[in-house]
UniProtKB/TrEMBL annotation:
NADPH binds at residue 75. Its EC number is 1.5.1.2. Keywords: Amino-acid biosynthesis, NADP, Oxidoreductase, Proline biosynthesis, Signal. The gene is TBLA0F02890. The lineage of its organism: Eukaryota, Fungi, Dikarya, Ascomycota, Saccharomycotina. This is Pyrroline-5-carboxylate reductase. One of its GO terms (cellular component) is cytosol. PROSITE patterns: P5CR (PS00521). InterPro entries: 6-PGluconate_DH-like_C_sf (IPR008927), NAD(P)-bd_dom_sf (IPR036291), P5C_Rdtase_cat_N (IPR028939), P5CR-like_CS (IPR053790), P5CR_dimer (IPR029036), Pyrroline-COOH_reductase (IPR000304). Pathway: Amino-acid biosynthesis; L-proline biosynthesis; L-proline from L-glutamate 5-semialdehyde: step 1/1. It catalyses: L-proline + NADP(+) = (S)-1-pyrroline-5-carboxylate + NADPH + 2 H(+).
Length: 284
């Protein structure tokens, strides 16, 4: 048995999740039922729908033979046919768009990507809610997704979310109380890392390394360090001390960064983003 999935709002995040599911490697027959046979994408205007079609054409055929119907201005028709809905609208549009289609929602499973929308807030539309916080690297299969489920989600539905969403990159299940922190750490995280990348790049430029080479070096340092932490399983502090020769260059640089409050700036910045995410949730 297989089913139709709707992606309601197929912009930056909707397209990232769409391409991850569409291009997922061929699955075994035991888990075939977790994959949709058809995905309907819903947008507001033709241009956005055409962009989805272009993206799919570039991806070629789906290994799991998923077909795509890219639509605009016709949410209700899509919802009526669908067993599962991925909600990827901007948070401020969720209420009005969902109210319009509420008459066509029975007990469809809603997988929401919308920041600030709690399981309780979305339960007005369906009892079956899974909340996902992911990020833009998902488009390249290097995303991270933190997932929380409503109490009405049964084992098979959890497996479905895990199977589909894990293709964005890393899949982590946490209680909903951690979602504001996940919004800041995972959702906003790429912007914070890009700030650090920019800082490293511009340090090279300031000292005379050309832009292209500064960017290549800074990028490899970030990528290589992340891989080293992952592959070694060693705590970052220990790896940091391995770079610090007594009286050497690294400890001198770290001292200045500590003086400037780089680490506490990162911690407080992520915390502030989480506070804003919590405020978004309270407005619902
Ligand atoms: N971007 C991020 O880094 C990020 C990270 C984590 C979570 N999120 C969450 O992901 C969600 C989507 O964000 P986004 O950045 O992907 O936004 P986006 O690029 O603006 O995508 C939203 C899509 O919704 C469509 N839409 C607007 N009105 C609609 C309607 N009435 N019916 C159907 N579709 C409609 C838009 O289509 P048109 O262009 O046709 O209007 C657009 O393609 C948000 O809730 C956000 O909190 C985003």
């Amino acid at each position: 048995m297989t089913y139709t999935l709707t992606i309601l709002g197929c912009g930056v995040m909707g397209s990232a999740v769409l391409s991850a599911i569409y291009s997922a490697p061929k699955c075994t027959s035991e888990i075939k039922s977790l994959y949709p046979s058809k995905i309907i994408t819903c947008n507001n205007d033709k241009e956005a729908a055409d962009q989805v079609t272009d993206m799919i054409n570039k991806l070629g055929e789906s290994p799991n033979c998923i077909t795509i119907d890219s639509t605009y201005g016709n949410n209700s028709a899509a919802i009526k046919q669908s067993k599962v809905i991925i909600l990827a609208l901007k948070p401020y549009l969720v209420e009005s768009v969902m109210n319009d289609i509420k008459p066509f929602i029975g007990e469809q499973h809603i997988i929401s990507l919308a920041a600030g929308w709690t399981i309780d807030g979305l339960s007005y539309y369906s009892p079956k809610i899974s909340r996902v916080m992911t990020n833009t690297p998902a488009k390249y299969g290097y995303g991270c997704a933190v997932v929380a489920h409503s109490e009405h989600i049964v084992e098979n539905e959890k497996n479905l979310v895990c199977e589909l969403i894990s293709h964005v990159g890393k899949y982590v299940e946490l209680p909903e109380k951690n979602m504001d922190a996940a919004t800041a750490l995972v959702g906003s995280g790429p912007a914070f890392v890009l700030l650090m990348l920019e800082g490293l790049m511009e340090s090279g430029i300031k000292m005379g390394i050309p832009l292209k080479e500064s960017k290549e070096c800074a990028l490899k340092v970030l990528e290589g360090t992340a891989k080293m932490v992952e592959l070694s399983g060693t705590h970052p502090s220990e790896l940091k001390h391995q770079v610090c020769t007594p009286g050497g260059t690294t400890i001198a640089g770290l001292c200045v960064m500590e003086d400037k409050g780089v680490k506490s700036g990162i911690i407080r910045g992520v915390e502030e983003a989480a506070n804003v995410a919590a405020q978004l949730g309270k407005k619902k």
